[in-house]
């Protein structure tokens, strides 16, 4: 099922200095970097997987702001059928079924049922429609609890024997509760052979993947990792996104992708007692742009998310990191990058969302070279291929983020938010 994908590195190209912006001298890209790849389909296992969606919103069905759209990726995969969509907005759920039914893969949506909540689905779905796997994409405060029954979706679906791929943030509850939830889910998962994965899709991003392979090839540990995540704000129309009590704030909701990538690349955990952070609140007059409809200005002033957050921390292995998030860019493209420094080397990851690129300066070299990577492959597709393969076969070695692992990223994101000060989530479940 799996094969090795070799990224071609034969091309002559020009190294670009990331610090001064000047062109370094032309260099021949070094050795090819091998990263493990997946086939788009399970060649040896064509077992039909019945898929359901919890949430008919943007992440699973697409938005104007980003590349995500889980249903479009999933429906291209062989041997899947969509049997339920759950959303209190039944009209939206029906519209999603209608639109997909008219498409090229419409037959995969035939008979897809809609329900207003998952309890109703568990009660009323016939055996032939009961999903094997649920894709959970709902606002953060509605899921990921162990102690609050109204937000205990994952526990209920696991008890009903369903595999899950859950979108981040995995919760809005205190980190220690989410840690306990992770342990419970792992237990049920082992008892019932369930895959409970989380959508930290940057782990499948070609730039992150190449950086990880480079670290292995260089064979030295990172000493310092610097992440910069700058988000555009003029297309964010959901009031709950701007409300820290509902979204968790920009680190828990968004920069958590970089917190996770830093954990993944460093192979170590953030130390809670080391975290320091500062934030710029929404009270600072920053913009000449009119506010997007239903945005920041509609949220209670004290609950609004930070415009900028800067944090520094230590990892358990002794290395250090820093994360800088802003909500300041105009237009639609994020500006994101990450640098990894270690003895004699730097690995620079540029723009993993839109135009992923990786540069490396190896030990005993003055040259910063771009490493050719396959920019065509799609991180979301790869994530789902790994998930479906694991659902079919029970082999989860290519699922790169299971719930317990994600709970550690959630905790670190929560700690950074707390350290940056008010506003910060308090673990309560908003009305
Ligand atoms: N990994 C990524 O690339 C990525 C991208 C976008 C969003 N996300 C994450 O996905 C999650 C959902 O975001 P979104 O943009 O789809 O939000 P959204 O607001 O567009 O959609 C959420 C949907 O959930 C529905 N809903 C509310 N309560 C529900 C319930 N109890 N049961 C079922 N459905 C319910 C809403 O009616 C809405 O249609 C967020 O946590 C977000 O951070 C991840």
Automatic annotation (TrEMBL):
<dbReference type="InterPro" id="IPR000683">
    <property type="entry name" value="Gfo/Idh/MocA-like_OxRdtase_N"/>
</dbReference>
<feature type="domain" description="Gfo/Idh/MocA-like oxidoreductase N-terminal">
    <location>
        <begin position="49"/>
        <end position="187"/>
    </location>
</feature>
<dbReference type="InterPro" id="IPR036291">
    <property type="entry name" value="NAD(P)-bd_dom_sf"/>
</dbReference>
<feature type="domain" description="Oxidoreductase putative C-terminal">
    <location>
        <begin position="203"/>
        <end position="345"/>
    </location>
</feature>
<dbReference type="InterPro" id="IPR052515">
    <property type="entry name" value="Gfo/Idh/MocA_Oxidoreductase"/>
</dbReference>
<dbReference type="GO" id="GO:0000166">
    <property type="term" value="F:nucleotide binding"/>
</dbReference>
<protein>
    <submittedName>
        <fullName>Uncharacterized protein</fullName>
    </submittedName>
</protein>
<dbReference type="InterPro" id="IPR013944">
    <property type="entry name" value="OxRdtase_put_C"/>
</dbReference>
<dbReference type="Pfam" id="PF08635">
    <property type="entry name" value="ox_reductase_C"/>
</dbReference>
<dbReference type="Pfam" id="PF01408">
    <property type="entry name" value="GFO_IDH_MocA"/>
</dbReference>
